[in-house]
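Risk register update: the risk of archive-format incompatibility is retired. Evidence:
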Amino acid sequence: AVLIRTLIRNNDPVVRKQTILMTAGVVAHGVGAETYMYSRIFLGLYPPPFLTITALAMAVCFAVAVVRYKMLVVTPQKEEPVALPRRFALKGGRAYLLRERRPKLVFLALAEAVRHGSTGLVITRRSPVEVREAYDLPATAIIWLTSSLGQNRLAPMPPEMLTRAVREFVAKQPTAVVALEGVEYMASYVGADRLVRCLHAVRDLATSGGGVLLVSADLTSLTEPIASMLERDYEPLELPAKEGQLVEDVFVIEGSGVLLSHASRTEEANTDPDVMAGMLTAIMDFARVSFAEGTDELRRLELGDKTVVIERSPKFILAVAVMGTARADIRDEMRIFLERAERRYGPLMAEWTGDIGEFAGLQAMTSRLFL
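Archived output:
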């Protein structure tokens, strides 16, 4: 059913050739199996066991589809260096576990590493387009864990294909940083023992040459053998405590005053609308005055127990509300964010129609500011 659906919906010529070859293999094996059963049951014949031959033919079709049309093309590529402040203390030759229900820190940790010169590989259940846009990874190799066919897409079965992909990548780049999320997805297809062996192999491959493995998983949704292995063999990766600063809210505002995105530390939208409106009004009024004066000392606003730090680029205003005293390096993070926003969305502003939906990716981009 997956192959037929792919043939109908996917117009990529490479994917269609792969699908046709795989479909031919499945049909050949299916016809062979049906013929064998019919001969035995209805005709009373005992034909030679040719199912092995048809199974081999199906495997050959799949192998040709993968090798001939390069289903996995994961060439190591470096990202452009950016002087990001260090938030994650990664050490070569280590495997780390990030316990999170929704993968976010795993992408932020890898994004920081590749911007400091490492080469990265992402294996994820999320769409590669989404990951690239949200975490600014235009060059990093990404493999999509999915049952749909396509280039650089990897099915959960057999798990040995994942091991092979990591082996081939680290053979080219032994010190790479590999990020894996989607263990829960694989566990729904693969038996616990087989998946544990796969994760052991991936860990050994990624770390043996001095590389780093990052695994994001929600242990409460995994069976006991898998969860126990991850807790035992992987180091917990935690952010260092930041004294005196806790980012509560991030506002991205268009230069003329339109709110494009608001992200809060708490997922629930429990902020009083009047309080939010008052904060935005104060921020915009203050921004107009402070940037007109042109001095950094004025780009800070006290609102009750919060400090609002403001930075501006040609097309955007970024305001970060901090509980407590704002650290000096927060402005570095804000400037890097604005550079990314200008690079990604700046060219669109000339023809912007006012639809805030065009800036949906901004909220994901704010994730690092909360670290």
